[in-house]
C-alpha cells in the first residue's frame, strides 16, 4: 500500500503548492471569469440542506485519486469535543441530512456516536464508505450498526471490473468490495422496499470525464448482478478533482494541461448553477468550516462572512454566504457536473 | 511545417468551417445526430467509432474515440476487441481478394 503525499514529504502535500499550480496561467480563463460570463459570479449559497462532517484523514486505503490525501499514515481525526460541537450546532437547525466522510469515517472512534446523535435528532445520515473497511476485524459489526440506524451507504466503486478498480484503489480492493457489498445486500441494503439505501460512486480511473450517469448506472447494474449477484440503488458519477493525489497523477503522467483543458471546455452553466457548495456546509476534522470538501483539502475556509469554526456556528449567516471559488472548481462544472450526490445537470 | 500530423490540430477541426460555413454546419449537425443515443447507445457508437478509426487509420480519430470510449464507460478490454474487429475486417478484406488472385492465376496457367 502506498504512502500519502504528506508521508512522502511531497511538495504537493502543501495546499499552497497545489493552488500555485492551479492558478498558474495556462491559456484558459480563470473560473471566476467563466462564472461571470454565465451570470453566476459571485456564487452564493442557497440554504444548507447537507451538513457534511469530515471526521479525518485516517483511512485503510491509499487510493491514487484521493483528494483528501488520506491513508493509514494520517493522524488527523476529529475529537469527541469537536463532534459534540457538530451535534450541538446541528440541533439548532432543521438541516435534514448529515453526510459523514473522511478518510474512512468509520475508523474515527466518534463515528458511531455521531450517527446515533444525528439519528436521535431525526436527521437522515449518510456514510461515505470505502467498502473494504467493513471487512476489518475491528469493524465486524459495522454493517449491522449501519442497518440498525438506517444509515444510507454511499460506497466507492469506480468500475465493475477488478483491473480498473484495483488500479485506482489498490490491489485486491475490488474483490474485497464485492464481499462487502454482498454483506450489505444480505442485510437488505440496495433491495427495493428495505428502506436501506446503497448507492455507489463511479470515479473515472484516469484523466477523463465520467460517462452520463444514467447510462453507466444501467451498465453497472447489469454487470454487478450478472457477474457477482450484487444489487444497489443508484450510481453517482463524480469527476476527479485536479487536486492532491489526482493532481500528482496528472502531473506525473503528463496529463495535467490536457485534463484542465477538458474540464474548461466542458464548462456547463447548468451544472455550475447546481453545484453542491450552494447547499452544503463542510466541517473539517478540527471544526473549521468550509464551503465544500474540496475547499477543505485546499485549506480554503469560509471567507466571505459567516463563522469560520463550528463552535461559532450561525446558520442564518451560513445559509446565504458567498462561496469561495477558484480554478479547481472547474472539476464540479464540467459536462453534466459533479457533486457528492452525482451529476446535478 | 515539420510533419503532416499534429495532435494539437484535432482541437482545430472546426477551422475547416472557415472555407464553407454552411457545409461545416450541416456536417456538424449530422455528426452530432449520428452519435446521439438511438437504437444503439452512445457507448456502443463510440466503440464502433474506435474500430472504424483504426480501419481508416486516422490518428485524430483514434485519439478522439479512445477518450470518447473511456468517457462513455468502456474499458480497455472492450476497446481492444473493437480494434481487433477492425483488424479482422481489414485482414479478411485482403485475404478474400486471394480468390481473385486464384481466378487470374488459374486463367493464365496451363
Supply the key terms.
heterodimer; A: 345 residues; alpha/beta; TIM Barrel; eight-stranded mixed sheet; 8 strands; B: 110 residues; mainly alpha; AhpD-like
Could you walk me through the main structural features you see in this protein, from its secondary elements to its overall organization?
The complex is a heterodimer of chains A (345) and B (110). Chain A is an alpha/beta fold and 345 residues long. Chain A has a single domain, classed as TIM Barrel, CATH 3.20.20. In chain A, 35% of the residues lie in helices and 10% in strands. Chain A contains 14 helices and eight strands. In chain A, helix 4 links the parallel strand 2 and strand 3. Chain A is globular. The two termini of chain A are 36 Å apart. The relative contact order of chain A is 0.17. With 110 residues, chain B is mainly alpha-helical. Chain B has a domain of 69 residues: Up-down Bundle (AhpD-like). Helix content of chain B is 67%, strand content 0%. The longest helix of chain B is centred in the last third of the chain and has 21 residues. The radius of gyration of chain B is 19 Å and the shape is extended. The model of chain B has no long low-confidence stretch (mean pLDDT 96).
Amino acid at each position: 500500500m502506498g504512502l500519502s503525499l504528506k508521508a512522502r514529504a511531497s511538495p504537493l502535500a502543501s495546499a499552497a503548492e497545489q493552488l500555485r499550480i492551479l492558478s498558474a496561467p495556462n491559456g484558459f480563463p480563470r473560473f471566476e471569469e467563466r462564472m461571470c460570463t454565465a451570470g453566476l459570479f459571485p456564487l452564493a449559497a442557497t440554504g444548507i440542506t447537507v451538513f457534511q462532517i469530515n471526521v479525518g484523514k485516517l483511512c485503510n486505503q491509499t487510493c491514487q485519486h484521493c483528494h483528501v490525501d488520506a491513508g493509514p499514515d494520517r493522524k488527523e481525526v476529529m475529537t469527541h469535543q469537536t463532534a459534540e460541537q457538530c451535534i450541538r450546532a446541528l440541533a439548532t437547525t432543521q438541516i435534514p441530512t448529515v453526510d459523514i466522510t473522511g478518510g474512512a469515517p468509520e475508523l474515527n472512534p466518534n463515528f458511531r456516536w455521531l450517527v446515533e446523535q444525528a439519528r436521535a435528532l431525526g436527521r437522515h445520515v449518510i456514510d461515505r464508505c470505502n467498502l473494504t473497511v467493513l471487512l476489518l476485524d475491528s469493524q465486524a459489526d459495522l454493517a449491522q450498526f449501519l442497518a440498525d440506524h438506517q444509515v444510507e451507504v454511499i460506497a466507492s466503486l469506480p468500475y465493475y471490473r477488478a483491473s480498473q478498480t484495483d488500479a485506482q484503489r489498490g490491489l485486491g480492493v475490488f474483490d474485497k468490495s464485492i464481499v462487502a457489498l454482498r454483506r450489505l445486500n444480505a442485510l437488505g441494503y440496495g433491495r427495493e422496499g428495505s428502506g436501506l439505501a446503497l448507492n455507489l460512486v463511479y470515479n473515472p480511473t484516469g484523466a477523463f470525464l465520467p460517462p452520463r450517469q444514467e447510462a453507466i448506472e444501467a451498465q453497472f447494474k447489469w454487470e454487478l448482478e450478472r457477474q457477482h449477484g450484487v444489487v444497489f440503488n443508484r450510481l453517482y458519477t463524480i469527476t476527479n478533482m485536479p487536486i492532491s493525489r489526482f493532481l500528482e497523477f496528472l502531473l506525473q503522467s503528463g496529463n495535467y494541461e490536457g485534463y484542465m483543458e477538458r474540464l474548461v471546455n466542458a464548462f456547463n452553466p447548468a451544472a455550475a448553477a447546481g453545484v453542491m457548495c450552494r447547499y452544503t456546509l463542510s466541517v473539517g476534522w478540527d471544526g473549521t468550516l468550509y464551503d465544500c470538501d474540496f475547499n477543505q483539502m485546499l485549506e480554503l475556509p469560509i471567507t466571505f462572512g459567516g463563522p469560520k469554526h463550528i463552535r461559532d456556528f450561525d446558520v442564518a449567516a451560513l445559509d446565504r454566504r458567498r462561496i469561495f471559488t477558484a480554478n479547481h472548481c472547474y472539476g464540479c462544472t464540467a459536462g453534466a457536473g459533479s457533486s457528492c450526490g452525482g451529476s446535478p445537470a | 511545417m515539420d510533419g503532416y500530423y499534429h495532435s494539437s490540430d484535432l482541437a482545430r477541426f472546426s477551422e475547416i468551417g472557415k472555407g464553407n460555413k454552411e457545409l461545416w454546419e450541416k456536417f456538424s449537425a449530422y455528426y452530432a445526430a449520428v452519435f446521439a443515443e438511438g437504437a444503439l447507445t452512445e457507448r456502443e457508437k463510440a466503440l464502433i467509432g474506435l474500430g472504424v478509426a483504426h480501419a481508416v487509420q486516422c490518428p485524430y480519430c483514434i485519439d478522439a474515440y479512445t477518450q470518447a470510449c473511456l468517457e462513455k464507460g468502456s474499458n480497455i478490454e472492450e476497446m481492444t476487441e473493437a480494434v481487433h474487429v477492425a483488424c479482422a475486417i481489414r485482414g479478411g478484406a485482403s485475404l478474400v481478394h486471394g480468390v481473385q488472385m486464384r481466378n487470374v492465376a488459374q486463367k493464365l496457367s496451363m
